[in-house]
Design brief:
Its EC number is 4.2.1.10. Homododecamer. Adopts a ring-like structure, composed of an arrangement of two hexameric rings stacked on top of one another. One of its GO terms (biological process) is 3,4-dihydroxybenzoate biosynthetic process. Keywords: Lyase, Quinate metabolism. There is one protein chain. The chain has helices spanning about 20-25, 30-45, 55-70, 85-95, 135-145, 150-170, and strands at about 5-10, 45-50, 75, 100-105, 125-130. With about 170 residues, it is α/β, with parallel strands linked by helices. The chain has a single domain (about 5-170), classed as Rossmann fold, CATH 3.40.50. A 5-stranded parallel beta sheet has the order 2-1-3-4-5, with helices on both faces. Helix 4 (about 85-95) links the parallel strand 3 (about 75) and strand 4 (about 100-105). Helix 2 (about 30-45) packs parallel to helix 5. The radius of gyration is 18 Å and the shape is globular. It starts with a strand and ends with a helix. Bound molecules: 1,3,4-trihydroxy-5-OXO-cyclohexanecarboxylic acid (DQA). 1,3,4-trihydroxy-5-OXO-cyclohexanecarboxylic acid binds near residues 79 and 80.
Amino acid sequence: MGAKNILLLNGPNLNLLGTREPQIYGSTTLSDVENAAVAQASSAGAKLSYFQTNHEGVLIDRIHKAREEGVDAIVINPAAFTHQSVALRDALLGVNIPFVEIHVSNVHAREEWRSKSYFSDKAEAVICGLGVFGYKAAIEFCLEHIKVRAKLSTTVSKYYNHKSKINQDKWPQ
Ligand SMILES: O=C1C[C@@](O)(C(=O)O)C[C@@H](O)[C@@H]1O
């Protein structure tokens, strides 16, 4: 069984999708992508929430919230943060939610610095150059292949309870 609760995240300037450099990013808008994503997940019996921001800290806060919401998988287009944000990488690693990195354009066929990603080595999968179809492919992958993590979270919280008990025993009162 695949992911049942997916979060779709888009970083800076992707609110301009559809009008922004259409020769690179095409003419589909972000709302088109988000609406299609919700429909795709719901026809598979899953829930999908979406969020876009131009602000790094706001994106990080949204990722932190995803853990409380029990999100099983994140599909993220970090946009320009891909090439520069250690903080965003750390946020994804911090919540320990599997994620798929997606880029509309083929970042490897553009400026050299776009080939550098702070996310790819930790992503479940990386998609680029498929245009907005990449979002559909990423969501399909999550629906089919990313496992629901309820059991893992229980194990992790048990471990932390256990660990904090050990610490309580050791620390001076
Ligand atoms: O904003 C973006 C969009 C992008 O992530 C893409 O979807 O192709 C590629 C990035 O290099 C760029 O900064």
